[in-house]
Here is the input.
Amino acid sequence: MAGINTQNSLLNVIELARQQSMPIDMILATGDLVHDSSIEGYTRLRNHLEQFDIPVYCLPGNHDNPKVMSEQMDSVFVSSPKTVSIGNWLIVLLDSTVPGSASGHMNIDELNILRQSLQQYPDRHTLVCLHHHPVLIGSDWMDRMSLDNPDDFFGIINGHSKVRGILWGHIHQTFEFRL
Here is the structure.
């Protein structure tokens, strides 16, 4: 893609992750997992990720086909759950994709999953994961492809003080903000 051998790039990232001295509890894959949404691509990625022997939780991005992804990224270690409970933490994985669009939208079903998860576990620290960025990041081209209904999303988040972080993919760069 764009002159880059993405298979080699993936293998290099996997090797860097394996060299980390700290134990890795899980991998969160926040979308754009396979550019062509092919069964073969998801199968190849799943096989690479299974080698870590730790849970891998996936959510779709605008380059993914959510149905094909969830079918192919389903094994002992790799899955696409809506919520993950680990210790005193809740991880909520939301689908912000819009078929045929690079931009994101949090539909009513996903907003309800977020709302219900936060209400069900009000005492847990929570990490909310999605693909599209819910805040402007200062990049003209990427900000045109952000979440188009961030007020709906933050309307739920703002009512829950135990949300400790929001993690997204999509922007292809480091970005941090404090809310």
Summary: The chain has a mean pLDDT of 93. The first strand starts at residue 27 and ends at 30. The helical segments are 6-18, 39-50, 66-72, 108-120, 140-143, 150-157. The CA atoms of residues 111 and 153 lie 7 Å apart.
